[in-house]
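Lab notes, practical 5.
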Amino acid sequence: MSNKKFNFQEYFNDLSLIEKNSKKIFIKSKDSKVCWRIWGKGNPIIFLHGGYGSWAHWIKQVLPFSKNHRVLVPDMPGFGESDDLSLPHSPEKIASNVAETLENLISVEDEPIICGFSFGGLISGHLSYELIQRKLRPKKLILVGPGGLGAKRGEMETMIARHSKMSEEETYNAHQTNLKILMMHNSQKVDNFSVHIQKQNTDAHRIKSRPISATDTLTKILEKQDVPLFVIWGEKDASVGVYLEDRMAILRKVNRNVRFHVEYNIGHWIMYENESRFNKILEDIIQD
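Output from the prediction step:
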Protein backbone atom coordinates (compact mmCIF):
# COMPACT_ATOMS: atom_id res chain seq x y z
CA MET A 1 0.00 0.00 0.00
CA SER A 2 1.17 3.51 -0.75
CA ASN A 3 -0.49 5.00 2.37
CA LYS A 4 -1.13 8.23 0.49
CA LYS A 5 -3.91 10.69 1.21
CA PHE A 6 -5.64 13.17 -1.06
CA ASN A 7 -4.12 16.64 -1.02
CA PHE A 8 -7.32 18.43 -1.93
CA GLN A 9 -5.88 21.95 -1.83
CA GLU A 10 -2.98 21.06 -4.11
CA TYR A 11 -5.36 19.37 -6.53
CA PHE A 12 -7.74 22.32 -6.51
CA ASN A 13 -4.86 24.71 -7.18
CA ASP A 14 -3.46 22.61 -10.04
CA LEU A 15 -6.84 22.34 -11.72
CA SER A 16 -7.67 26.01 -11.16
CA LEU A 17 -4.48 27.11 -12.92
CA ILE A 18 -5.86 25.60 -16.11
CA GLU A 19 -9.56 26.23 -15.59
CA LYS A 20 -9.10 29.94 -14.81
CA ASN A 21 -8.15 30.56 -18.44
CA SER A 22 -11.52 29.26 -19.61
CA LYS A 23 -14.95 30.77 -19.93
CA LYS A 24 -17.27 28.54 -17.89
CA ILE A 25 -20.96 28.64 -18.77
CA PHE A 26 -24.09 26.60 -18.05
CA ILE A 27 -26.57 26.18 -20.90
CA LYS A 28 -30.07 24.76 -20.45
CA SER A 29 -31.29 22.00 -22.73
CA LYS A 30 -34.54 20.07 -22.90
CA ASP A 31 -33.52 17.50 -20.27
CA SER A 32 -30.46 18.98 -18.57
CA LYS A 33 -28.21 21.93 -17.92
CA VAL A 34 -24.78 21.40 -19.43
CA CYS A 35 -21.57 22.89 -18.08
CA TRP A 36 -19.18 24.04 -20.82
CA ARG A 37 -15.61 25.29 -20.48
CA ILE A 38 -14.19 27.24 -23.41
CA TRP A 39 -10.62 28.26 -24.16
CA GLY A 40 -9.09 30.22 -27.03
CA LYS A 41 -10.30 31.41 -30.43
CA GLY A 42 -10.49 29.95 -33.91
CA ASN A 43 -12.10 26.94 -35.52
CA PRO A 44 -13.83 24.92 -32.78
CA ILE A 45 -12.61 21.62 -31.38
CA ILE A 46 -15.09 19.78 -29.17
CA PHE A 47 -13.54 17.36 -26.67
CA LEU A 48 -15.82 14.75 -25.03
CA HIS A 49 -14.61 12.94 -21.91
CA GLY A 50 -14.88 9.24 -21.09
CA GLY A 51 -17.16 7.34 -18.73
CA TYR A 52 -16.83 8.12 -15.01
CA GLY A 53 -15.15 11.28 -16.32
CA SER A 54 -15.32 15.04 -16.74
CA TRP A 55 -13.64 17.79 -18.73
CA ALA A 56 -10.46 17.00 -16.77
CA HIS A 57 -9.83 13.93 -18.95
CA TRP A 58 -8.51 16.56 -21.41
CA ILE A 59 -6.50 18.50 -18.81
CA LYS A 60 -3.30 18.27 -20.89
CA GLN A 61 -4.89 19.32 -24.18
CA VAL A 62 -7.08 22.35 -23.47
CA LEU A 63 -4.31 24.93 -23.19
CA PRO A 64 -2.02 23.69 -25.99
CA PHE A 65 -4.86 23.46 -28.51
CA SER A 66 -6.40 26.77 -27.44
CA LYS A 67 -3.41 28.56 -29.00
CA ASN A 68 -4.84 28.00 -32.47
CA HIS A 69 -8.39 26.76 -31.89
CA ARG A 70 -11.50 27.46 -29.90
CA VAL A 71 -11.58 24.54 -27.46
CA LEU A 72 -15.02 23.58 -26.12
CA VAL A 73 -15.27 20.89 -23.44
CA PRO A 74 -18.51 19.92 -21.70
CA ASP A 75 -19.17 17.86 -18.67
CA MET A 76 -21.69 15.65 -20.42
CA PRO A 77 -25.14 15.37 -18.82
CA GLY A 78 -24.94 13.09 -15.80
CA PHE A 79 -21.25 13.84 -15.24
CA GLY A 80 -19.18 16.49 -13.46
CA GLU A 81 -21.00 19.78 -12.94
CA SER A 82 -23.74 19.19 -15.50
CA ASP A 83 -27.25 18.21 -14.45
CA ASP A 84 -28.64 14.70 -14.55
CA LEU A 85 -30.71 13.36 -17.40
CA SER A 86 -34.15 11.87 -17.13
CA LEU A 87 -34.35 8.09 -17.31
CA PRO A 88 -33.76 5.99 -19.29
CA HIS A 89 -30.23 7.04 -20.18
CA SER A 90 -29.19 6.54 -23.79
CA PRO A 91 -26.41 7.79 -26.08
CA GLU A 92 -29.04 9.47 -28.27
CA LYS A 93 -30.38 11.44 -25.33
CA ILE A 94 -26.92 12.46 -24.11
CA ALA A 95 -25.86 13.56 -27.60
CA SER A 96 -29.06 15.46 -28.36
CA ASN A 97 -28.77 17.46 -25.13
CA VAL A 98 -25.11 18.26 -25.81
CA ALA A 99 -25.99 19.24 -29.40
CA GLU A 100 -28.84 21.47 -28.27
CA THR A 101 -26.55 23.45 -25.97
CA LEU A 102 -23.76 23.47 -28.56
CA GLU A 103 -26.04 25.35 -30.97
CA ASN A 104 -25.51 28.35 -28.67
CA LEU A 105 -21.73 28.12 -29.10
CA ILE A 106 -21.08 27.42 -32.78
CA SER A 107 -22.62 28.51 -36.07
CA VAL A 108 -23.27 27.02 -39.50
CA GLU A 109 -20.14 28.81 -40.76
CA ASP A 110 -17.94 26.82 -38.39
CA GLU A 111 -16.32 23.52 -39.29
CA PRO A 112 -16.15 21.88 -35.86
CA ILE A 113 -13.84 19.00 -35.13
CA ILE A 114 -15.18 16.46 -32.64
CA CYS A 115 -12.73 14.41 -30.58
CA GLY A 116 -14.10 11.91 -28.08
CA PHE A 117 -12.40 9.58 -25.60
CA SER A 118 -13.66 6.09 -24.68
CA PHE A 119 -17.38 6.47 -23.78
CA GLY A 120 -17.04 10.00 -25.12
CA GLY A 121 -15.93 8.48 -28.43
CA LEU A 122 -19.21 6.59 -28.55
CA ILE A 123 -21.14 9.77 -27.76
CA SER A 124 -19.07 11.67 -30.35
CA GLY A 125 -20.46 9.48 -33.11
CA HIS A 126 -23.98 10.32 -31.97
CA LEU A 127 -23.12 14.00 -31.54
CA SER A 128 -21.73 14.14 -35.07
CA TYR A 129 -24.98 12.70 -36.40
CA GLU A 130 -27.04 15.17 -34.31
CA LEU A 131 -25.04 18.13 -35.61
CA ILE A 132 -25.52 17.01 -39.21
CA GLN A 133 -29.28 17.03 -38.64
CA ARG A 134 -28.95 20.59 -37.31
CA LYS A 135 -26.91 21.75 -40.35
CA LEU A 136 -23.71 21.98 -38.27
CA ARG A 137 -21.72 19.35 -40.13
CA PRO A 138 -18.42 18.41 -38.44
CA LYS A 139 -15.22 18.67 -40.43
CA LYS A 140 -13.66 15.61 -38.79
CA LEU A 141 -14.61 12.99 -36.22
CA ILE A 142 -11.71 11.72 -34.10
CA LEU A 143 -12.25 8.80 -31.73
CA VAL A 144 -9.77 7.83 -29.02
CA GLY A 145 -10.15 4.27 -27.70
CA PRO A 146 -13.91 4.35 -28.37
CA GLY A 147 -16.51 2.00 -26.93
CA GLY A 148 -19.78 1.02 -28.57
CA LEU A 149 -18.39 -1.04 -31.44
CA GLY A 150 -19.83 -4.38 -30.34
CA ALA A 151 -16.37 -5.92 -30.04
CA LYS A 152 -15.13 -8.01 -27.13
CA ARG A 153 -13.62 -6.16 -24.19
CA GLY A 154 -10.01 -6.90 -23.30
CA GLU A 155 -9.36 -9.19 -20.35
CA MET A 156 -7.96 -7.36 -17.35
CA GLU A 157 -7.61 -7.58 -13.61
CA THR A 158 -10.69 -6.85 -11.53
CA MET A 159 -10.77 -3.23 -10.47
CA ILE A 160 -11.28 -2.28 -6.83
CA ALA A 161 -14.74 -1.07 -5.85
CA ARG A 162 -14.84 1.90 -3.49
CA HIS A 163 -17.25 2.10 -0.57
CA SER A 164 -18.06 4.51 2.23
CA LYS A 165 -16.28 2.49 4.93
CA MET A 166 -12.89 2.83 3.23
CA SER A 167 -10.28 5.04 4.83
CA GLU A 168 -8.82 7.90 2.83
CA GLU A 169 -5.66 5.85 2.25
CA GLU A 170 -7.66 2.86 1.04
CA THR A 171 -9.68 5.04 -1.33
CA TYR A 172 -6.52 6.63 -2.70
CA ASN A 173 -4.90 3.25 -3.25
CA ALA A 174 -8.03 1.90 -4.95
CA HIS A 175 -8.08 4.75 -7.46
CA GLN A 176 -4.34 4.42 -8.02
CA THR A 177 -4.66 0.69 -8.67
CA ASN A 178 -7.64 1.13 -10.99
CA LEU A 179 -5.78 3.70 -13.07
CA LYS A 180 -2.94 1.21 -13.48
CA ILE A 181 -5.33 -1.58 -14.48
CA LEU A 182 -7.49 0.28 -16.98
CA MET A 183 -6.22 3.71 -17.86
CA MET A 184 -2.44 3.74 -18.20
CA HIS A 185 0.10 1.12 -19.24
CA ASN A 186 3.14 2.81 -17.69
CA SER A 187 2.44 2.70 -13.96
CA GLN A 188 4.97 5.51 -13.38
CA LYS A 189 2.58 7.85 -15.20
CA VAL A 190 -0.09 7.30 -12.55
CA ASP A 191 0.79 10.38 -10.56
CA ASN A 192 -0.88 12.21 -7.71
CA PHE A 193 -2.73 14.56 -10.08
CA SER A 194 -4.27 11.70 -12.10
CA VAL A 195 -5.47 10.00 -8.90
CA HIS A 196 -7.11 13.22 -7.75
CA ILE A 197 -8.79 13.68 -11.13
CA GLN A 198 -10.02 10.08 -11.00
CA LYS A 199 -11.52 10.57 -7.55
CA GLN A 200 -13.34 13.76 -8.44
CA ASN A 201 -14.63 12.26 -11.68
CA THR A 202 -15.93 9.06 -10.12
CA ASP A 203 -17.48 10.92 -7.16
CA ALA A 204 -19.49 13.09 -9.56
CA HIS A 205 -20.71 10.58 -12.18
CA ARG A 206 -24.40 9.56 -12.21
CA ILE A 207 -24.65 7.64 -15.48
CA LYS A 208 -23.56 4.02 -15.80
CA SER A 209 -21.61 4.18 -19.04
CA ARG A 210 -20.18 0.69 -19.24
CA PRO A 211 -23.41 -1.13 -20.25
CA ILE A 212 -23.85 1.37 -23.10
CA SER A 213 -20.22 0.96 -24.18
CA ALA A 214 -20.74 -2.80 -24.39
CA THR A 215 -23.30 -2.38 -27.20
CA ASP A 216 -22.73 -1.66 -30.91
CA THR A 217 -24.46 1.74 -30.81
CA LEU A 218 -21.44 3.59 -32.22
CA THR A 219 -21.21 1.17 -35.14
CA LYS A 220 -24.86 1.73 -36.00
CA ILE A 221 -24.71 5.53 -35.85
CA LEU A 222 -21.52 5.68 -37.93
CA GLU A 223 -23.31 3.74 -40.68
CA LYS A 224 -25.65 6.74 -41.07
CA GLN A 225 -22.96 9.35 -41.81
CA ASP A 226 -19.86 9.92 -43.89
CA VAL A 227 -17.87 12.44 -41.84
CA PRO A 228 -14.08 11.93 -42.24
CA LEU A 229 -13.24 9.43 -39.51
CA PHE A 230 -9.99 8.98 -37.57
CA VAL A 231 -9.44 6.51 -34.73
CA ILE A 232 -6.56 6.48 -32.24
CA TRP A 233 -5.62 3.68 -29.85
CA GLY A 234 -2.84 3.03 -27.42
CA GLU A 235 -1.29 -0.30 -28.34
CA LYS A 236 -1.58 -1.42 -24.68
CA ASP A 237 -5.17 -0.24 -24.21
CA ALA A 238 -6.48 -2.65 -21.57
CA SER A 239 -10.08 -2.15 -22.68
CA VAL A 240 -9.12 -3.46 -26.14
CA GLY A 241 -6.68 -6.22 -25.26
CA VAL A 242 -6.13 -8.64 -28.14
CA TYR A 243 -9.23 -7.49 -29.99
CA LEU A 244 -7.84 -4.46 -31.82
CA GLU A 245 -8.11 -6.03 -35.27
CA ASP A 246 -11.75 -6.87 -34.58
CA ARG A 247 -12.42 -3.19 -33.92
CA MET A 248 -10.59 -2.16 -37.06
CA ALA A 249 -12.59 -4.62 -39.17
CA ILE A 250 -15.87 -3.29 -37.77
CA LEU A 251 -14.90 0.30 -38.51
CA ARG A 252 -13.72 -0.51 -42.03
CA LYS A 253 -17.16 -1.93 -42.78
CA VAL A 254 -18.96 1.26 -41.74
CA ASN A 255 -16.43 3.70 -43.24
CA ARG A 256 -14.05 2.39 -45.87
CA ASN A 257 -11.98 5.59 -45.67
CA VAL A 258 -11.41 5.40 -41.91
CA ARG A 259 -7.83 6.08 -40.84
CA PHE A 260 -6.19 4.47 -37.83
CA HIS A 261 -3.29 5.38 -35.60
CA VAL A 262 -2.00 2.91 -32.99
CA GLU A 263 0.64 4.34 -30.65
CA TYR A 264 3.15 1.81 -29.38
CA ASN A 265 3.42 0.91 -25.68
CA ILE A 266 0.72 3.30 -24.38
CA GLY A 267 -2.55 2.53 -22.61
CA HIS A 268 -6.16 3.69 -22.73
CA TRP A 269 -5.85 7.26 -21.36
CA ILE A 270 -3.24 8.03 -23.99
CA MET A 271 -3.63 11.81 -23.87
CA TYR A 272 -2.63 11.87 -20.19
CA GLU A 273 -0.05 9.08 -20.23
CA ASN A 274 1.98 10.71 -23.01
CA GLU A 275 0.48 14.11 -23.77
CA SER A 276 3.33 15.33 -25.99
CA ARG A 277 3.02 12.33 -28.29
CA PHE A 278 -0.76 12.41 -28.33
CA ASN A 279 -0.90 16.14 -28.99
CA LYS A 280 1.40 15.70 -31.98
CA ILE A 281 -0.79 12.88 -33.34
CA LEU A 282 -3.93 14.97 -32.91
CA GLU A 283 -2.40 18.07 -34.47
CA ASP A 284 -1.27 16.01 -37.49
CA ILE A 285 -4.84 14.72 -37.93
CA ILE A 286 -6.27 18.22 -37.64
CA GLN A 287 -3.83 19.55 -40.23
CA ASP A 288 -4.26 16.57 -42.58
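Observations recorded by the TA: The CA atoms of residues 25 and 36 lie 5 Å apart. The first helix runs from residue 8 to 19.
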